[in-house]
Amino acid sequence: MSGTFAREQPSGRPEQGEQVIAFRSAGKVFPDGTEAVRDVSFTLRRGEFLSVVGPSGCGKSTLLRMASGLGPHTSGEVEAEAANIGFVFQDATLLPWRTVRKNVELLAELDGASKAERQRIAADAIRLVGLEGFEGHYPKALSGGMRMRTSVARALTMKPPLFLLDEPFGALDEITRGTLNEELQRLFVSERFAAIFITHSISEAVFLSTRVLVMSQRPGRIVESFDVPFGYPRSPELRFDPEFGRLSGEVSQALKAGYE
After folding, report:
1. So where are the chain's domains?
2. What is the pLDDT of residue 186?
């Protein structure tokens, strides 16, 4: 299924565009007094793919909710230039009584698009994620990977400049996860959005990203930032490259230090 999201791109890095979000000393304290995130600062531009790794419970998902406005920050600033944000959760969150086509149409339908318009944009998104031929299937008839593709297609229909992805492939088997890693990076190059991707996999983070942030234990802080030097598209064989192994090792060491 490799390459179903987009056509092959020339080797290189996506051109970076306008700033889409900025965190400035941002933090989050919940009403019960739990401090989840402390003093986080970074900026993200269109054409950047930012992965965030860190210990369980360090506030990675909270960071995404702060970025989306679903869980507002309690200190510092979070400035989002994009009102239209695509959010892909750990679960595909599909409506079981709607087909693939109808699930993908949902956001456009809620946005008031005409039937013809939402059918057109849903068809484009379904084609991009390689689900042509499955438009009439219900979620229960789909594999885990296909359900996640449907979730990504639904978010794509609104052409968001910013994608937030909260461990979307964490529950999938290794082969499916690897395939979707390849597809997502091709989609990123083709559509040139900005992305914040949460993962527990260092290999996945390095393979997909232009930059990797490492968070500490709760309250989560950014303890290291790594630029990823590889061009796009990236083949699966990149994971066997010595430079890939060296960089993954450095991220791993920073992650271990974040537990201290």
Report:
1. 1-84+161-260, 96-159
2. 83
Distance between CA atoms of 130 and 22, rounded to whole angstroms? 33
- What is the number of residues in the chain? 260
Q: 0.70 exceeded by the pTM?
A: yes
- For residues 98 and 257, give the distance between their C-alpha atoms in angstroms, rounded to a whole number: 46
Give the tens place of pLDDT for each residue, 185-220. 888 988 889 999 999 999 999 999 999 999 999 999
Can you say whether residue 27 is alpha, beta or left, with left for phi > 0 and alpha for psi between -120 and 50 degrees?
A: beta
3-class SS string, 125-138: HHHHCCCCCCCCCC
Determine the residue type at 226.
F
What average pLDDT score do residues 34-59 get? 93
Q: Which CATH class is domain 1-84+161-260?
A: alpha beta
CB 176 within 8 A of CB 31: no
DSSP readout, 156-196? Answer: HTT--SEEEEESTTTTS-HHHHHHHHHHHHHHHHHH--EEE
* Residue 135 backbone zone (phi > 0: left; psi -120 to 50: alpha; other: beta): alpha
- pLDDT value for 13: 61
CA 73-49-181 angle, 5° bins? 115
